[in-house]
Write a structure and sequence with these properties.
16 helices; alpha+beta
């Protein structure tokens, strides 16, 4: 059966589009960022389909927000208002992400009827919104293409081109996300290895806490505070800011509120697990400031997200590690929990070891001091025993009585006896007084 001229033109157009898709796929395979992939897809869609407006939106790490990454021809008002939208919102892009199904509207009236909230928003006359599906089938974003013509019918070849472009975009975005995750894992593993080596290098509890705070910034967060249990509250033991100019601010805040009584942190310290707040309402924190100075200090920080992890070692809950970010382009999220918990575990173990070493060192020093004191006293007893012609044990009683009379420790008086700094006979004669005389002397 012969092929018509019209059929030949359609075949040629399909062949041309296939070639362009292959070329686009090649460029997407080398794109190194979400922005680069999105820009390539937007530009290719606008050029190939003569679209009035094109946008690529991607679901963020939390899975709750859709963010506009690249656009062409989109009204600035739309970018401002709908650049970031909730996945749960009653909007075409959000619906496509939730359902994973293609959205098509052929007129502005149809769009307004289905989404009244968009009635006064500059939108194209007809549009197609395709899901960007991950390998597991879930939608990780959308490709939105709008046309100026009312009632435009999107033919099968055009729809196939859009679907093919959306699939390639999704694959490229997935590849980049996996590569980013792998790089992040490698960075985190190197960080934890370096942190572990540094933390075990010190057996001074104070130095360990300072090292933890300094390690975390800026590698993990912009601010790090180490709070240790102290009675019924937490005490800020160390704090660091990534910006040297802001270090005095956090130190001043720590000095003002050294004892932390925040109910949430106290509960986390005693029995809770690590928790993250991806969006911190810092305005509320500033509004609750104690006074003008406090308000000024809080305002200078502008915390955007926060994470808290308990410091637990050998079943002992030592305190809480607090991480915070202060920039709009950096957020702590669920993916940071594992890193924070690992760092907190290493820090807690290092702190517990340092404390144990400090306790043993103190015990050793106390024992050595007691031994030295005992030796001095025994030597002084020997001197007195020889002078007074009594046994060493008998010489101890007048020595002790003399020390009490002078309101002095037996050890210090014994040192004076050995140095010859006191008249032994006189001191012992004084020590020969009865206990009642000594007490009366003490009163005088």
């Amino acid at each position: 059966m012969g092929q018509t001229v019209g059929d030949g033109g359609a075949v040629d157009r399909a062949g041309d589009r296939l070639e362009r898709l292959v070329a686009i796929a090649g460029r997407l395979s080398t794109a190194g960022s979400t922005e680069a992939v999105s820009r390539e897809v937007v530009d290719a869609s606008a050029e190939e389909l003569s679209a009035q407006r094109v946008a690529v939106m991607v679901v963020d790490e939390s899975g709750d927000q859709l963010r506009m990454i690249a656009t062409a021809g989109v009204d600035p008002l739309v970018v401002e208002v709908y650049g970031d939208v909730d996945v749960a919102a009653d909007l075409p892009a959000s619906e496509v992400v939730r359902t994973g199904e293609l959205f098509v509207t052929r007129s502005r009236a149809e769009l307004d009827r289905r989404y009244p909230v968009l009635a006064d928003v500059p939108m194209p006359a007809s549009m197609v919104v395709a899901p960007l599906r991950a390998p597991d089938g879930s939608a990780v974003g959308i490709l939105s293409i709008g046309f100026a013509e009312e009632g435009r019918e999107v033919d099968a070849p055009t729809m196939q081109f859009i679907q093919g472009l959306a699939d390639m975009c999704a694959q490229a975005l997935h590849r980049i996300r996996v590569e980013d995750q792998l790089r992040e894992v490698l960075v985190q593993q190197r960080f934890l290895a370096d942190a572990g080596a540094l933390l075990i290098s010190s057996l001074d509890p104070t130095e360990v806490m300072d090292q933890v705070a300094r390690l975390a910034v800026p590698a993990v967060a912009d601010i790090c505070a180490v709070c240790l249990g102290d009675g019924d509250a937490l005490r800020v033991a160390a704090i660091a800011h990534a910006d040297p100019d802001r270090q005095p601010v956090v130190e001043h805040l720590a000095a003002r509120s050294e004892m932390v009584t925040h109910a949430g942190l106290i509960a986390l310290w005693r029995e809770g697990e690590a928790t993250v707040t991806a969006e911190v309402d810092w305005t509320a924190a500033v509004a609750a400031a104690e006074d003008a100075e406090h308000r000024s200090l809080l305002s200078a920080l502008e915390v955007t997200s926060a994470l808290a992890a308990p410091l637990v070692a050998r079943e002992q809950r030592l305190g809480v590690l607090i991480l915070m970010t202060t920039t709009s382009d950096r957020r702590l999220g669920p993916t940071d929990l594992a890193l924070a918990e690992d760092l907190a575990g290493r820090a807690a173990l290092s702190l517990a070891n340092a404390r144990m070493h400090s306790d043993r060192l103190e015990l050793t020093e106390n024992l050595e001091r007691a031994l030295r004191n005992r030796v001095v006293v025994e030597q002084a007893k020997g001197v007195l025993a020889a002078r007074l012609a009594v046994t060493p044990d008998e010489a101890f009683e007048p020595l002790r009585a003399a020390a009490r009379a002078r309101r002095q420790s037996v050890y210090l008086l014994a040192e004076e006896v050995l140095r010859g700094a006191v008249d032994v006979a006189e001191r012992v004669a004084g020590a020969d007084r009865t206990d009642d005389e000594v007490r009366r002397s003490d009163v005088r």
